[in-house]
Amino acid sequence: MKKIISLIVAFIGVFIIGVIIGRFILAPHPPLADDNRPVYPTIYITGSSGKATTMNTMINDVTSDKDTRARKGLTIVVDTEKNYSLKVTGTIDKHNSYPTIAVGMVKGTNNSLKYEGSLKAIMSYLGKHYNIPYANVLGYSAGGSGVYRYLTEYGYDRSLPPIKKWVSLDGQFNASTPQPDQTLAQVLTDGPKDKTKYYDYWLENYEHVDKSIQVVLLAGDYDSKKQTDGIVPWADSFSIYPLLMKNGNSVVHYLIKGKNTSHDEMPFNKEAINYIKVFFYE
């Protein structure tokens, strides 16, 4: 009898120790989708400021529209100086099949390589902890070139969740280089005459992008005479259009007109947001 009591006491002791270790010593496991159910996130990547809050107006509008079925999910801040470590806040609960993921950085940058590394770390994290048949991605400003760079490096990497749709919002692909000797129509057909080293990279690697990815290139019609959003010329934001066409991607370009079309205002532009809602959540 004493042996049985001793065994019971020992079992209880081991159980209590296990609970303590699991709760207070081991790092908590990120919230997982119930029963491995699929979730379809849309990732909103900030521009060179690095602030995830830049995307708040867009995300608030998207998630308040019942037709999108989207709900707020996670905010992820990337520390590019610490091996792309992630600070993840928020949850994706069992009722949220279309979560938004707001992405920022500890330190702002316009370096597309850092955006590429950040997106890879994020996609690896999401793929590890959630069942993701596909994700959609928006890249604003320098974030646009970062997404494109990621797609050229990892577009066919099936160890990562696939990307179905990509929106570039005032993306920068040619160092904000104007094309005074070309019309926009010529840029859309032939690409820019004045090419920087950044554009040379796209020329060398555009065929690495998964042909099934659907793309929308948006730019603000802030100054029609100078053909710019005030910072990035249209010839830059749309410069990769002929490459995507040549690669066989479904791609459209669209100028957003009216109010709030300067580069800094585009994340808050109502027409741009409505276009994005239809494209991502139709």
From TrEMBL:
Q: Does the keyword Chloroplast apply?
A: no
Keyword vocabulary terms for this entry: Membrane, Transmembrane, Transmembrane helix
Q: Where is the signal peptide?
A: none
Task: Report the InterPro entries cross-referenced here.
Answer: AB_hydrolase_fold, DUF915_hydro-like
Pfam families per the UniProt record, alphabetical: DUF915
Spans traversing the lipid bilayer: 7-26
Protein name (database record): Alpha/beta hydrolase
